[in-house]
Task: structure prediction
Amino acid sequence: MNPRMTRDELLRRGAAGVTLLSLPGLLAACGGGDDNGGGESASGGGGGGEPNDVLNFSNWELYIDTKKPTTFQQFKNKTGIKVNYFEDVNSNDGYFAKVQGRLRQGQGIGRDIFVATDNSRFPGLYVDQKWVEKLDKSMIPNISNLIPAQQHPPFDPNRDYALPWLSGMDGIAWNEDLTDPVTTVDKLFNDPKLKGKVTVWGEMGDTLGLVMLSNGDDPSNVTDESFDRAIKKVEKARDSGQIRRFTGNDYAQPLARGDLAACFAWSGDVAQLIADNPKLHWGIPETGGIIWTDNMFIPLGGSVPTASTYMNFVYDPKIAAKIAVETGYISSVKGVKPFALKLDPKSGNNPLVFPDSATLAKVHQNDPKMLSNQDYITKWQKVQGQ
Amino acid sequence: MGAFLHRHRSLTPYLLLGPGLLWLGIFFLIPLGFLGYESLQSGVFPSFQFTWEFSNFSNGIRDYHEQFVRSFVYAGLATVACLLLAYPLVYWIAFRAGRWRNLFLLAIVAPFFVTYLVRTLAWLNILADQGPVVGLLRDLHILAPDGRLLATTFAVVSGITYNFFPFMALPIYVSLEQIDPRLLEAAKDLYASPTKAFLRVTLPLSAPGIVAGTLLTFIPAAGDFINAALLGTPKQTMIGNVIQAKFLESLDYPMAASLSFLLMGAILVTLLVYARIVGTEKLTG
Result:
């Protein structure tokens, strides 16, 4: 099937309007999926035109502000657009697997925005496969607030397709009731007191990045040797029973419950968990951490004007400040700090939200070549017993 | 229409079979054909080519025989555990529970009003390292002070046992419930002890239920992945976990498809051996 044809057909049907709106089934068939409540946006998919009344947004858990009035409420008040927010991204590969079938057919996925992490092979894959729409930059004047460090990522050198949502860091979390501070990967993998009370991520880049750093290897320039060294180290910790499981976001509950003494964890997640459980701690390993950025994309069939309107909204430093302060993650928007200090005077000293130069000196970025190497991916699955 | 059917009466069975066959064709045979086609492809996502790649099958066995064996061992253990737990229970319900029968049967089925995933997630809390069950077992010195239940083989097999329990219990109940009590009276009249009456009358008559129950438990259990994923560790992964990861994480569709076929074949062979041992008439009741 020619994907372009299908999408054109979809748009024609969208123009026909009435038929589409009166037939929820057809609507679901065009833009919906089995598990999404949205789909309305599919009727106005593609570029040009006016924004819709509804924006369908897929994101990770623990990744949005919750204090009222939320930024979604403010967005609704300002533009009249309601946000349908789905926390249905649990892993980059899982989300990709879920949507790729429809995208390959040139069909929409019932979303106007979804996020993908630059610490995986997927941002590049979405762009190369042309499964994402171009941003309408004329509707995003606030794009000028994007910090220079984020302006030319390798998967999208001119920022035609994606804008950063938030950035975060890979590190180690521990529960002070169950262990003394765990500040190195070697302690996490070898301390007999932690046996069976440790998890690492199933995401290759996150876990192996930290392990490579602990081996003294450079995760931004991976060789077969340094990759195999890292794999061996994880394998050994798995075989000794030290590692209990490979996780996505789902380390949060066992960590909070006390099943885990220490684990690989994302910076902002733990910042949010500490609010309920002050016994938890998080730190960048002594040998260094990994920094990554989630990017907002518009999938094929998503409404470019609606999504662009929203992106412009969150690139207002005042809005970006609220989201960053409440999630504990790093914003890529210029001029956020004064607004953040107004919301929470202590946030300026929070290195998770505003990493100082000492923190930034400790974090590295993963080698994109590693992330898309099929042999490496197969080896990584094998370590997980899969 | 009526007249037409009357004249071609021999067509009626086919017309009645039609919807079922159509359903089977569209939702089973055609997808199976696609899966077979996919299992012989090679390449890297997203560009797979059909190349009669039979090595997918040999590589699948070479790389994942451990998970295959584990799946069958776990499914076997869970099936035996289900049988040992279910038989006495439904025996009691069928013969002793009187007018409370339906209530007890409902109690067996009731947990299944909750979805599979949530039921399994609940065990994460019940068996938690800091939870009451582990705490009690540690106090009783059944578990070592740093021992745990979660993330062990025991937890995975128990999870499967729990999740497939009604598939064992209900068929056995049906076959026990159908036993004519006069047969047991007759056995007693012929000086059979209760044990002998059970072994010579009740057990053989409930055999079709046992056979049906073991099949309904074993087959889905062998392909299960949720229990191993949530209650196990990387050392407890079953073949279902591998297939799931190949499809959804490493996007290696040909390998995932060939592993699915291998699993299907292995289950089929097990089934044939089982039928051979117990006799086919028991399979059909």
Q: What stands out?
A: The beta strands of chain B are 41-44, 47-50. The first strand of chain B starts at residue 41 and ends at 44.
